[in-house]
Design brief:
Strand order of the largest sheet: 1-2-4-3
Largest sheet: 4 strands, mixed
Helix content: 55-70%
Distance between the termini: 118 Å
Number of strands: 6
Number of helices: 22
Low-confidence stretches: 3-27, 206-247, 516-533
Shape: elongated
């Protein structure tokens, strides 16, 4: 080997060794570093800074909780107009019996010696996510709960969030970030010296490479190479002091283990956890938008599944086996299945509004299995099939759902929309024999709509008249309530609920489709009166 080659090799090895030595960010602190940080934590000015930031977070969480918790008392229009609020937080799920069930389950999971008070609430949000606030409030999205198969899986989700509060993760995150920043400040001078030293040495080594390669010009090129190498070293030698350590994964793993322990302490079957993650992973694979929440992040799902599996086959295996031998573990309850019918339906509806078709279809199909006579479920399943169907069979399936929605709503008459969908299907068949049925469905739709909207007509009433024309009727008309006089028109008696006749809806439909429809649907319907004496 020549002197030129030897010089090149030595210099190159030096530069590469510099880069290798400092290319990896520091992931763990030495005992000396930890001791120094413990000393920093005792300083009054540091303690004061931690307390101030913690107080700010608690105030922020109080405001957050107030805004979300008061969402159910706001008008739907007010919430829909606040797009930022809906996007960031969703809105409170207004189903008291289900919320109380989830909250009651959560209270049973709280450790006996806990000094904290908790409230578990549900957010109407199709993206699977859960959040724990410093207030003791835990929010779980309907999107996450809708993916659960049983009560054991729900207990794990709630237990995991309780663990975040019990282990003071939010406070510790603030504390660790501040301590790390203060520690970095004290190390900065030393780090700067190291950067200067290695940059200078790398520059000299680079010049050596260039000189060995080609005299003065080579030395200049090598010097520039050395500066570049020194820049690389300087970048990796010390990470940005304003970037706090990523504690999220560490805290999540700790909460996963604690949540597992909480549910096992209450005899819930922890073997359900991997099944939950498998379900979540499957849903994300079908629609990546489901993974927009942290719970659905594909990489984290795999990591957490591995972590939980390791705990079940290691640390907690003896406890799990002992409980199984002692009489088994709780998987689910009849109450869970009964209540999930409503939640899966409602989350399916909101998922459809977000164009999350796979989730909407799966939720609504699950809801039908749990409660087959729910007209609202059948209507929205029909909507999913009508929107996403590709074949004549899909379209036929959609009309089948609409027909069932009409059937199951026959006595209550709460859902006008299936009648409109049925009319549209009949119009698409272009069969003259269906004209009378089309007109009947359209009139029923308008009558039920008015009943549900204080006499107001559908906003697209001009389109409804177009449909009547397609069915051969150019004269049917319902006047807008606000412009029709009610003079000399008797007030309509509103029947109390407890005495409402079972044929009330049938009578309304009969009046709607009769020849004197216009007289029957006058805006006198807007006025209510006490029962005649």
């Amino acid at each position: 080997m020549s002197r030129k080659s030897t010089a090149l090799s030595i210099a190159a090895i030096f530069v590469l060794s510099c880069v290798a030595a400092y290319a990896q960010p520091k992931t763990e602190y030495s005992e000396k570093d930890k001791k120094k940080m413990a000393e920093i934590a005792l300083r009054p000015e540091v303690k004061s800074r931690i307390d101030e930031q913690w107080a700010a977070v608690r105030r922020r969480d109080m405001v957050f909780a107030y805004n979300v918790n008061s969402s159910s008392s706001r008008s739907a229009e007010a919430i829909s107009n606040n797009l930022e609020f809906r996007e960031k937080y969703g809105q409170l799920y207004d189903n008291p019996i289900l919320v109380r069930y989830v909250n009651s389950l959560g209270q049973r999971l709280v450790p006996d010696n806990s000094p904290n008070l908790y409230s578990i609430r549900l957010l109407l949000d199709p993206v699977p996510r859960a959040e724990a606030l410093s207030t003791g409030t835990i929010y779980i999205s309907t999107g996450l709960v809708s993916l659960l198969d049983n009560e054991a899986q729900l207990s794990y989700i709630v237990g995991h969030e309780i663990a975040h509060i019990e282990r003071q993760h939010q406070y510790n995150s603030i504390r660790n970030s501040i301590l790390e920043e203060e520690f970095d400040k004290e190390k900065e001078a030393d780090a700067a010296k190291k950067r200067s030293f290695f940059s200078a040495m790398a520059t000299v080594a680079g010049a050596g490479i260039g000189g060995a390669a080609g005299g003065m010009n080579g030395a200049m090129i090598g010097a520039l190479s050395g500066v570049a190498a020194g820049s690389i070293v300087s970048h990796f030698a010390f990470r940005n002091r304003f970037e706090p350590t990523e504690w999220t994964t560490e805290f999540e793993n700790e909460a996963d283990e604690a949540g597992l322990k909480y549910m096992l302490d209450r005899n819930y079957d922890a073997r359900e956890i991997p099944r939950l993650y498998a379900r979540l992973d499957n849903m994300v694979a079908r629609d990546g938008r489901i993974g927009l929440g942290f719970m659905g992040n594909p990489q984290r799902v795999k990591e957490r599944t591995a972590k939980i599996t390791g705990l079940l086959t290691g640390t907690y295996k003896a406890d799990l086996d002992g409980k199984l031998k002692a009489g088994g573990l709780v998987g689910s309850s009849p109450e869970f299945s009964l209540l999930m019918a409503s939640l899966k339906r409602d989350n399916g509806v909101v998922a459809l509004e977000y164009d999350l078709y796979a989730m909407a279809k799966e939720n609504l199909q699950d809801a039908v299995k749990l409660r087959s006579n729910d007209s609202r479920v059948h209507y929205y399943l029909g909507q999913v099939m009508a929107l996403t169907g590709r074949t004549p069979e899909d379209k036929q399936q959609a009309i089948g759902y609409f027909t069932k929605a009409i059937q199951y709503d026959a006595d209550r008459g709460a859902y006008p929309e299936p009648h409109l969908e049925n009319a549209l299907y009949l119009i698409s068949q272009n069969d003259a024999a269906s004209q009378e049925q089309i007109k009947k469905e359209l009139k029923t739709y308008v009558a039920l709509y008015q009943r549900e909207h204080s006499g107001a007509l559908p906003r697209n009433m001009h389109i409804i008249y177009d449909y009547f024309q397609l069915a051969g009727d150019n004269s049917w008309y319902v006047p807008p309530a606000m412009v029709v006089s009610t003079k000399n028109v008797d007030a309509i008696y509103v029947t109390p609920v407890e005495t409402a006749p079972s044929n009330a809806v049938a009578d309304l439909v009969t009046r709607a489709v009769s020849n004197d429809t216009r007289a029957e649907l006058k805006p006198a319907a807007l006025k209510t009166a006490a029962q005649p004496q």
